[in-house]
């Protein structure tokens, strides 16, 4: 009898209801691969964008008419249950976390990944649910604030969207670095964002955060709600505007700001960094987590069978922190 695994297929771009459960053969790991039994996997805003084929200019990479790979999910945590004969970093029984990258397929019962990819031993201090989301909001916010924005102690930092996956991590990271953190959120999330380290929380529904002359050293727009031109008056003389949501409308600002003036619009495709660099960042993140200085914020946990519902909830734009399926 052939062993099988459950997964979720995306037959065409569209709303959450295009997601289709499938049963696939359980692959044997290749020489440098590990077979992982997945205990938890992330459901992210980026997953939803890829399901919809957005932005359109990404389709040459994702697939022009339908997703080229066709499977859902990137971030995961689980147990290694088999390894290829050339694997040296992992052994059966190891608890690991990481991401599937452009091969996708993390919203499943099992997956084969190369040991040289973004795959790490899971700390005992982290649940599978918490570990599964580290390669989304936590890793992205770390890279943007530490490596791109180069936040320093005493900097004034504004986080737009302080309660989401990226925002909840960004507030903690910036505060831990000694920055004076202001963040926007809805009124219902204000207490959460303040508890994460924001000294000032602005209700985005009632107040404007981007006041001329505010003098922020870094503005991190985690959800793409503004633009460099709108944020520029609120930046300090050499301030940096960071946004991981790249659109054709934002691209000229990223290119031109490096040539004109001292204020900068900056973008980095975190997922395109070399795996060894991403593993090094994750190692730094794990130190913060082990020291109690950073913790993923969890909103909802769904059964894997309810992936459609999880996608629909993420798409409302009202989640607090992270969503996973188990």
UniProtKB/TrEMBL annotation:
Among the GO molecular function terms of this UniProt record, one is: oxidoreductase activity
Domain named Enoyl reductase (ER) is located at: 14-325
User: One matching Pfam family, short form?
Assistant: ADH_N
Where in the sequence is the signal peptide annotated?
none
Cite the InterPro entries for this sequence: ADH-like_N, ER, GroES-like_sf, NAD(P)-bd_dom_sf, YIM1/Zinc_Alcohol_DH_Fams
Q: Which Gene3D superfamilies match?
A: Medium-chain alcohol dehydrogenases, catalytic domain, NAD(P)-binding Rossmann-like Domain
What is the name of the protein in this document?
A: NADPH:quinone reductase
